[in-house]
Structure formats: C-alpha cells, structure tokens
Amino acid sequence: MSENKPAAIYLKDYRVPDFLIDRTELVFDLDDSVTVVTSKLHMRRNPSAGRITTPLVLDGGEDVKLIGVAIDNYTLPAEEYHINAEHQLVITATPDQFLLTVETVIEPQNNTRLEGLYRSSGMFCTQCEAEGFRHITYYLDRPDVMSIFTTTLIADGEKYPTLLSNGNEVERGVSDEGKTIVTWHDPHPKPAYLFALVAGNLQHISDTFTTSSGRDVTLKIFTEPHNIDKVDYAMGALKRSMKWDEDVYGREYDLDIFMIVAVDDFNMGAMENKGLNIFNSSCLLARPDTTTDDAYLRIEAIVAHEYFHNWSGNRVTCRDWFQLSLKEGFTVFRDQSFSEDLHSETVKRVEDVSFLRTAQFAEDAGPMAHPIRPASYIEISNFYTLTVYEKGSEVVRMIHTLLGAEGFRKGSDLYFSRHDGQAVTCDDFVKAMEDANGVDLTQFKRWYSQAGTPRVQVTDEYDEQAQTYTLNFSQMTPATPGQPTKLPVVIPVKMGLIGQDGSSLRFNLAGETTTETVITLTQGEESVVFEQVAERPVPSLLRGFSAPVKLSYDYTTEQLALLLAHDSDGFNRWNSGQQIAVNELQALIAQVQSGESLNQESALVSGFSQLLADEQLDSAMVALILTLPSVAYLSELAEQIDPQAIKTARDHLKGQIAKALSESFASTYERLNVQEAYQPNEAQIARRALKNVALSYWVASGDEQAQQALVNQFRNADNMTDQYAALATAVDQDLEVADELLASFYEQWQQESLVVNKWLTLSASQTSAEGLGRIERLMQHPSFDLKNPNKLRAVFAGLTQNVTLFHDASGAGYRFLADQIAVLDKRNPQIASRLCTPLTRWRKMVPSLSDPMKSALQQLAAGDLSKDVYEVVSKSLA
Ligand code: PHE
Ligand code: ZN
C-alpha cells in the first residue's frame, strides 16, 4: 500500500467557507501546447464564518502551474504565498474584500484523467464535477461557494470555430493575433462544479421551445460533423423533458439558450453544467441502424435527467458532497417518473427495480456499503454510486408514496421556493416535505444515515369465524461496515389481497373498505389485522416495489402462479414469475454443486405456455416475464456465489423451457417478425422485445430452423435492435456461426465507434479457446483506445460477464483484471476504481474462488495507488 495513506473526510467536520466569491471572470487562451488561464475572483470574507484571521486557501492540482498572483493591483511576492502538500495555494494575508487575480498554465492535451480541461477527439472540453475545477485554476472548489461566472475563450477560429461556455454569448471579436474571442456570461450564481467550456469544430442542430410563460428558448445540440445525423432523437427528448418538468413540477427553464455537446471521451454518462450539458456520445447519439431500443430509452432518460438537474441540482444545489443524493436521488426519481409517464409505467418500474436489486443490493451487502448520505469518504468520485443514485431515488419515491402526489408536489414547490439560489442539505429537503404537509419524518430520516438493505419477514393467520386476516411483520437491517447495529426504518408496504379465483378481495382496515392500501411499518415487529375478509387470501405485498427492502413470505408455487396470472399489480405479476424461477434455479444450483442430475420439472413451462398463447397481453410485459433472473441477480441472492454453478443451472432451465415450448416460441417469433419502418415507439419496442426473447428460446431449443432464422435476421435487419439481438444470442448460445457473425458485424460497423463498443463487449464475453489471450488481443485491436472510457468499459464488461474466463479457478482472470487496473490507475483513477467492483465481492465467493480473488486485491494493494483505487481496495480488504 502507498506510504501516505490518504485521509478520510467527515461530514461532521463541515464548516462554512471562510471566503466567498461573488463574481468569477475567467479568460482561457486555448492552444494546442499550453492553455493559459487568467482568473479574476471578486472575493470577500464570509460574514457567517466568524473567523477573521484565517489565511486564504484555494484548491488546486498537481497539473496546474502557477504563473502569478495579485491582490487588487498588488502583485504578491513569493514570500506572501505558497503551494502546500495538497497542491493548495495559501495566501497568508488578505483584505476583507478584494480582487484576486491568478494566472495559471495547464496542458489539456496531456490530461488523461478526464477531469478539468482536456482534449477529446480534437476538441477541448471540461468536466468539473465533483472536484475537477481545481485542475483548471486555483479556486474555492466546493459546492457551497456560488459565484456569477463570465468566461472568455480565445482560440484559433479556423481550428475551433465553436467556442461555448455557460449562459449567454455576450461578446465576440478578434484578437491582435487574429484569434477569435468569445465571451459568455451566466447570470445565475453557481458552484465551480457546474462550470463548462467547449472549443471545437462542431456542427449543431437548432430548435426552440416556448415555455409556459411564453418565453422562447433556443435549443442547440452539437457534435462532431460525422455524427450530426444522430442527434434528432435527443432534441425531441429534450423538448419532452422541458414540457414534463413544467407540467409535473411547475419548473420552467431560466436562460435564453440551452446547449448539449456530445464528446467521445467521458468518464461518466453526462453532466448537467448550467446551460451547457456535456454528454458521453454513447448517451446522446441515436440512429435506427446503429442504436438499440434500450439505448433509445436510455438516451431519453439521460437527456431528461440532466435537464431536470437545472432545478434539482443547479438552482438548488448541494452544500457539500455528502449531500450528493440530494440532487442525484431526487433527479433519478424525476427521470424515472418521466419515463414511467411517457411509456409503460410497469415495464419501466420492473427494469428499474431489477437493476436496483441486482447491483445496488450487492453494493449494500459489500465492503463499500454506505448510506445514501455517507458520513465519510476518502475520494468523492467513489461515491457516485448506485446507492446514492438508485437507492436515493427509492427514498424519494417512498416520500412520494407516504405523502401522495399532491402532498409531494406541495413539498417540492416549497423546497424550490425556499432554497432557490442556495446550497443545501438532505435535511432541508425533508424539512420542506414536512413543513408543506404538516408531518413528522424524523424516523424516516434513518434512511439517510443507515446503510444496508432491510429485510422484512411476513407471516399470516386467517380466522374463518371472525373473517379476520392478520399479517405479522418483522424487520431488521443487517450490519454493514462501521454500522454494527441498526434501528427500525419506516417502510411503506403497498398491498392487496387476492382470492382463490384471482380476484382482488375487499377488506376493512381502520374503518375503511378498500382493495388496496399502504401499510407503514415503523417497528421491529408489528401486526396488522384486516377485517371482513371473505376467504383466506393470498397476500400481494410490496406492490410496485414500494420500498427498497428484501421482503419474504413463504409462498407456495401455486400461490405464486395465482399472483402471476391475476394480481392487479403488474409489478407483482412479474415479480411472482421471477420468484418461481428463483426458487427453481436455487434448487438447480444446489443440484449442480452436489453433482446430482438436474431436475426436469418446471412450473414455468405451463405458465409461459399460457403467456405465449395469449396474444392480447402486452408483449413488453410478456418479454420481461419470460426473461429468467440474470446470473448477476442470482449471485446477489446467493449466500456463497458459485458463478459456474449458477450459469449451468440457468442454462439448464432455459434449455428445458425452450425444448418444452419450442413450437410456441417458433410461432411467436414468426407472428412478430414483421417488416415495418423502424420507430422507437411503445408498440414496436414491445414487439421487438418479445420477438427477440422468443428467438433466443427457440435457438436454445436446438432447432436447426431457429439458427437459420437468427442468421437471416442478423443479415437482413434494418435496425440495430434486431441485428444485435441475433448476434448476442449467437454468442450467448455459443453457436458455431457466432465467429463468422462477429467478424461480419465488425466489418460492417468499423466506422461507427459506438457500435464497435458492442462488438468489443460481445467478443470479450464469448467462450473461446484463446482464454485471456482473446482479451489481450482485443486491447491491441486497432479499434481499441486506452484513452476512451467507453472502450475500456466495453472490454471489461465482456470479461467480467464471461463466467468461464473471469472466474477460472486458477484465479488468472482476477489477476489479469488487477494488473490492468494497476496500469490504468496511472492514467485515469476514476475509471480504474470503478473496474475494481467485481473484485470487492471476494468475501461472498465460494471458498475456491474467494482466495484467489482476495490475492488479486492484495497484489493491487501492494502497489502505489491513487486515492480512488486505494479507498476501494483498502475497504475491501479491511
Ligand atoms: N452529475 C452527473 C449526473 O448525474 C454525473 C457526473 C458526475 C458526471 C461526475 C461527471 C462527473 O448526472
Ligand atoms: Zn445526476
């Protein structure tokens, strides 16, 4: 481990800033070798800091070269300032109010971390969240310092005709040397993490949106010229987002222009910089022949997410980074609700919950478990997590469920009006919800401070004489690192009762007769008695997944089948089908592990057969129900993870269902395999989803004709959804033709970088004789680029999904990943740190894999690590 162990930062140590920056004037002289940044900060002591003799300490980075510092018109001599070990600029004495001028030099072309100002395929761009701005110039780089920014860009107008920053363009001219000079002004005070600039040779499309109060806003989306044919869909998504935020939250856009720029090299998905969102091109560009249905929906959701941040994040921002979920949890909730409103609510909910239960629950059960508002961190970049985002969204959703849509809207209105222009905390958010509704959410707030996924156990009794039905609940949250004991949390359980014939039973609760209710659990143990219940019911619990918990009730397969067929709640219909599959798969996994021959009975056969026969059902829901729980989800559920046994069991069950229903899958495929002009709309997406699930089963049945259909679909598809589905099935089912199809896919799409990423993932996930040599070859392939996070993610996603290769008992797969992380850590610590996730699961692996996985981590720990990787590795081994 590195000698200087990086220190943790604690929420309890928060102090208001000693200085404020009222206005920030930046001048960037952009050049291919060095960029000169001149910063003029209009500063004063913070009256609420109460400390009057502190030095001025500005954040900086090792990659920032200081040229000179002046206060007002006085150039500071060397003895009046210094740079400390944390790369901060320390100025010993300052007046109460002053103009600080700082000149720095940076080299964006050598910036491989992709934080601060860097180059991506010929353009300059920035990424400042969370602490990237300090890699541009010295600053109070913390979200509670909000300033009005004016930014001037100076660049060669031939090479960089597009010069953008936040706010409105206010001036344009030419310098003495003939360079283009453009000045932007953003009237809204903002923290430095929302600053952005872009300089490049870009094309754009334009549109306008008229706000509810009648103002016209100009909308522009910029890309490199070769991608300009892929931005129309995002523009439509942006307009839908603007309208929805007005309709549902009463939030209007607040500048005259809104811009989005696509860049190829980006650590994350996208960034909500004020008035100038910057997107990973993979989250923005769409065209039917290169983009799958899933990607279309994801692009729409991300465009919405970043746009919604304009209020939930920018107008009202975070006081400190411990409050990250204040903006992220809330904004994810907003984008999920948007997609639910525009498309199928149930389908969207199923997808979001699947993701949460697979990935966030695993995080909550591992060494990096943390509450949605963490109490400490070493490197904040490590806390852009599924917990802060997805669980954070679930916590906001629970408030919505508890208060109802109207109460929630009253709360959000109060939150936005009370805190407009401020940097606030999660407590402030909850307080606004409380005040607007006259409720007390004190206990509810435990969701913000306790990590781990609560477990809820449910038992029941029916009294036929009295016609009463009792549900007994008990809850407990398992220990997580640093939190050995937990208190009971508030858990809203939305539920109903189902009769033997599948109908929704009426019941009386607290004097009210109804068929659906929300029970709010608050105790370790409690019981609820339902009256006037006409027969022994089957309970339908946690409808719509009304709380992020693991709920268990001992259902029989027949009861689950009843819910699957009849529950009025679509989410629970799906969930019941999944539960049947999970039960069967867990039994099969045990059989694989003990070397028994595998069971040949499955209740799913008759259930699926009925689904396939009923053409009236929503195809999208049928496709979801037919999809067996993933290896990743089954791993999360396992007490000890045996990836090979899980995969064997899953392949077995899939093959068994496929063989039993081969003809139904074939006819479903034929029925849905129709030609129509591609549209990413509801009906078509649903049809393609079911068609391609049917194809994968039909192929899994071993039918020769299915393979022929697959090859035809691959060759004749006019859209990426169908072409990719065929290819992915060929690879997944290990068909002989897979190599040929992969090669022809690359041949066809080698010019389309985003499509090549799909090829990289599938190639890396393919079972092949080459072993890890295959991965090495992919990383040497001309299409691979170590600078590009999407390429790295593509290959490593393929590798880690490749059960046979990655989880080889020799530990070679784990060592390979550890070696790659160590190398990458020198270039891009954020990406290196994220790649560690699969290795953090070592304690949950079966003993034969646990040891080699742990040694791979130890091998990493022995090297000289960034703060990012150090935090993950040291916490994983602790
Ligand atoms: N704030 C961005 C988002 O959600 C995520 C992000 C974080 C992007 C850090 C870049 C760097 O929406
Ligand atoms: Zn966000």
What do you see in this structure?
There is one protein chain. The chain has 878 residues and is an alpha+beta fold. Among the domains are: 320-326 and 333-407 and 416-448, Orthogonal Bundle (Neutral Protease, domain 2); 455-547, Immunoglobulin-like; 555-729, Alpha Horseshoe (Zincin-like fold). 40% of the residues lie in helices and 21% in strands. The chain is built from 26 helices and 33 strands. The protein has an eight-stranded mixed beta sheet with strand order 6-5-9-3-2-12-15-14, with no helix packed on it. It has a five-stranded mixed beta sheet with strand order 17-18-19-21-20, covered by helices on one side. It starts with 8 loop residues before the first strand and ends with a helix. The model has no long low-confidence stretch (mean pLDDT 98).
Can you tell me the CATH architecture of the domain at 555-729? Alpha Horseshoe
CATH superfamily name of the domain at 555-729?
A: Peptidase M1, alanyl aminopeptidase, C-terminal domain
Query: Mean pLDDT, nearest integer?
Result: 98
Biggest sheet: strands side by side, in what order? Answer: 6-5-9-3-2-12-15-14
Q: Largest sheet, if any?
A: 8 strands, mixed
Helix proportion of residues, in percent?
40-55%
C-alpha end-to-end distance: 13 Å
How much is the radius of gyration in Å? 28 Å
Q: Give the cofactors and ligands.
A: phenylalanine, zinc ion
Which strand-content bin applies to the residues? 15-25%
Overall geometry: globular
Q: Please identify the top-level CATH class of the domain at 555-729.
A: Mainly Alpha
Low-confidence stretches: none
Function: Aminopeptidase N is involved in the degradation of intracellular peptides generated by protein breakdown during normal growth as well as in response to nutrient starvation.
InterPro entries: Aminopeptidase_N-like_N, Aminopeptidase_N-like_N_sf, PepN_Ig-like_sf, Peptidase_M1, Peptidase_M1_dom, Peptidase_M1_pepN, Peptidase_M1_pepN_C, Peptidase_M1_pepN_C_sf
EC number: 3.4.11.2
GO molecular function, one term: alanyl aminopeptidase activity
